[in-house]
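In full, the data:

***
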Amino acid sequence: MKGKKLTLKRPLIIFDIESTGLNPATDRIIEISLIKVSIDGTKEVKTRRINPEIEISPEASAVHGIFNKDLEDAPVFKDIAFSLSRFMKGCDIGGYNSNRFDIPMLQYEFERVSINDAFAGANLIDVFNLYCHFNPRTLSAAYSEYCGAKLEAHKAEADAMATFEVLEAILNEHDEEIEDQTVESLANMSNRSKSLDLLGVIIDSKEGPVFAIGKHKGKLLKDYVSYCKWMLTADFSNDTKNIICKTIGLTR
């Protein structure tokens, strides 16, 4: 492929997950594939199926074709969590629609086994948001347009590999428009809402952190301290709660 290449200062992991459903707080990961791209361009692929210990919804199985019987001999998440977090340590992270789905889902899984720093310091590239910056489409359409091939979607490893190929193709196609092709620059470009937490519950503004969801959407956290205190007792990610505490000056 001609044109500019992705500029890496440290390894980049592109990942994709399949799950029991769409709610990061209550559903579970059943398959994860990670492609670690080293600074020299070499790739290492890890793909694992995971026993979710809960039922996979029929709607989810209809999409990815994985059923509970397929996972009876697979490890549970806690059995692979620490090796997975070590594999991710020191890497930047990317995926397709990952800021909205894959990262929150994985963050909740890590928090359930008391791993709270898996994404610490990582730049997050959402290739879907980056793609939508130029062409609002699906991964299959993006792969067809940029890579000239048909994608068999909803297979974690295939989706993760396709996402990386689309990322490289976007850099080539728009090399004159994206002068700075570092991971940091692409992460900023793909983070459309400027989220302060991994789940996108709190976003940045000129006046300070504001709520991105709920009845106080668009309002400053500092003006709703009692509501913030309620959020600390509710079913939000530890990452979100830490941002709340930092904003309003509380200690957990």
